[in-house]
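Sample pair:
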Amino acid sequence: MTQLIHSSDIYKDTELALKDDGTYHCQPTKNNIGSLPTLFSDDGAFLQEPNSYLFYLKAVKKAKDLNPCSRALLKYYQFLESEQLEWNHFPPIKRLKPTYLFRSHLLKLVKCGELAHSTANTYMNQVKNFYLWTMHERFLRIKREQEAPFKMEFIQIRNQGMLAHLRPTFTLETSDLRIKVPKDSNSQNIRPLSPLSQESLDLLIAFLPKTSEELRLQILLSIDTGMRIEEISSFTLDALSTASPVAESQHRFELTLCPQSTGVQTKFDKSRRIEISIDLLEALREYQISERRLSRLNKLYTKVSHPLLLKQSTIEALKRCERHEPLFISQQGNPMTRETIESRWIELRGKIQKIDTSFRHRFHDLRAAYGTYRLSDLLDANLGTIESLELLMGWMGHNDESTTWKYLRFLKRKEVFKVKFGILDSIMHEAVGSKNE
């Protein structure tokens, strides 16, 4: 079966040298792009076409995350191997082409509940992009239309945003390989918003004193600000220093998240302002100068000073730490990662489930709790719907306004959802404020 192996550091520039014994040796020189996911066939052969594509994405397109593409190509090549198909052989009959056979295979997995619609569609989209690249680079030569791996299509999408009256529809380029994803958020194939109820929040807060100081603050940051887990793991002292009071409130402050100026790794590299309670802000400042954190910081700076034996990805993370000092550091002195936070969250969730088996929330659901409670509070304060959504969109850093509208649709369906955002302020005071009194 085709396997995916992550290589060691890959260099764009190399030098070929002739050794004394008459053999040639390829020596890397510069432009280290880090580790690459690499596909090998069942018999250990290097799969040139998909691996060249992954190299192109990393070295030329400078893709930050190759996991979606590598997983899709792994799934595709495993399917080709099991069905004894060639990646570049396309019979004129559509149903016999490997791309359409793979699509049918994914739909079967969706039907039996082994795969979500959205994941299947992502796999298919990645395979389509791979073939577009192979045709452009002449790895795959198409002599006639009947031998093409798929058909390109242009579809009209209805604009459901706030400016739909100006542009009712927009055109999207796609292919006939696409797998439609159900839009109903109640569908079993799409996980709906799952904000924590007041009871779940109370139960979670009761467990926080039993967790590490870092996880406690990370959980409270997500609940109080709606920050994504990647933003929390890369949160810096520079971001903390941007705190400024909100004019309309004595209890709320604003912070700046920006990869360039404050070092926080936001989605889409967007800069935005977020809100935070004064209780949590003071708790973060207290943790910043704590002996526990400073001890971890010393270990981090030791690694920053001696990075030669580390992987390129780790070196890049350490360089970011050198420019922007992180607030959260692991016990081993490593930059905090989303994987570390998620692992600690899963451990905590397991402990909570011994009390309440229905507590199955993801860490991301804390962000959903912020969004729903905050929107409910804005609407209860008689702020207009559009104004409320615009504020929430800015605070949460949504790139598409349709994402923010999900929170409004959730509230409309949940008429019993009457809990106001003020409960989060009281939670912050209970969880961290009492220490400052």
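Strands lie at 3-6, 10-18, 24-34, 37-40, 152-158, 169-175, 244-245, 252-257, 272-277.
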